[in-house]
């Protein structure tokens, strides 16, 4: 495993199609890694064979689409946390709470938008097995983000939940009712 990592340190990842292996914190196509490390012509082995070899020496070979979105979810959470921490330091608690709510709303709306698109696709042509797994992962990620945010603010008296559009640009929290 260390030899593969050492040989791939200066390699630039090629575009990923369907499968990926993470080497030195970067995603590569499995055939690129095995071909680069061994010097073998890539036409002499399959992606599955490359994954089998790389898995045996300790690398995680994954479906590229699921891995991209797993990384995206973590990136969104990291960006939201960093933004909120900066706001808290610079502007105090009230702005921190508003910034947190806004950042959470951005992340959750993007996830919900993609979930809604997949639900529409389910009504028509249906979802592939990979898309079904992606849908389940996104739904789980959304629930985890909401639960983590709820735990963070528990007992503070702050309603962290993102503001939701009601009508013609009026913004209200989901628990607020109109008169």
Description:
With 179 residues, this protein is mainly alpha-helical. The chain contains six helices and five strands; from the N terminus they run αββααβαααββ. The protein has a three-stranded antiparallel β-sheet with strand order 2-1-3. The protein has a two-stranded antiparallel ribbon with strand order 4-5. A hairpin with a 2-residue loop joins strand 1 and strand 2. It is elongated, with a radius of gyration of 21 Å. About 3% of the residues have low confidence.
Can I get a quick summary?
With 179 residues, the protein is mainly α. 61% of the residues lie in helices and 10% in strands. Helix 2 (30-38) packs across helix 3 (47-56) and helix 4 runs antiparallel to helix 5.
What string gives the helices and strands in order? HEEHHEHHHEE
Mean pLDDT: 77
Distance between the termini: 65 Å
The total count of helices amounts to 6
Strand order of the largest sheet: 2-1-3
Give a count of the beta strands, DSSP E runs of length 2 or more: 5
Describe the global form: elongated
Main β-sheet: number of strands, strand sense, barrel status?
Answer: 3 strands, antiparallel
Can you give the helix content as a percent range? 55-70%
Radius of gyration: 21 Å
């Amino acid at each position: 495993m260390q030899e593969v990592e050492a040989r791939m340190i200066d390699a630039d990842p090629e575009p990923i199609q369907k499968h990926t292996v993470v080497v030195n914190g970067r995603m590569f196509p499995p055939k690129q890694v095995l071909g680069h490390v061994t010097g073998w012509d890539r036409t002499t082995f399959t992606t599955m064979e490359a994954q089998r070899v790389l898995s045996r020496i300790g690398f995680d070979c994954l479906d590229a689409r699921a891995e991209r979105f797993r990384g995206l979810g973590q990136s969104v959470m990291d960006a939201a946390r960093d933004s909120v921490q900066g706001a808290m330091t610079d502007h105090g608690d009230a702005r921190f709470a508003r910034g947190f709510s806004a950042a959470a709303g951005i992340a959750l709306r993007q996830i919900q938008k993609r979930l809604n698109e997949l639900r529409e696709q389910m009504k028509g042509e249906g979802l592939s097995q990979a898309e079904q797994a992606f849908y389940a992962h996104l739904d789980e990620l959304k629930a985890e983000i909401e639960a983590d945010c709820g735990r963070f603010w528990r007992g503070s008296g702050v309603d962290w939940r993102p503001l939701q559009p009601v009508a013609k640009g009026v913004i209200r929290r989901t628990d607020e009712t109109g008169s």
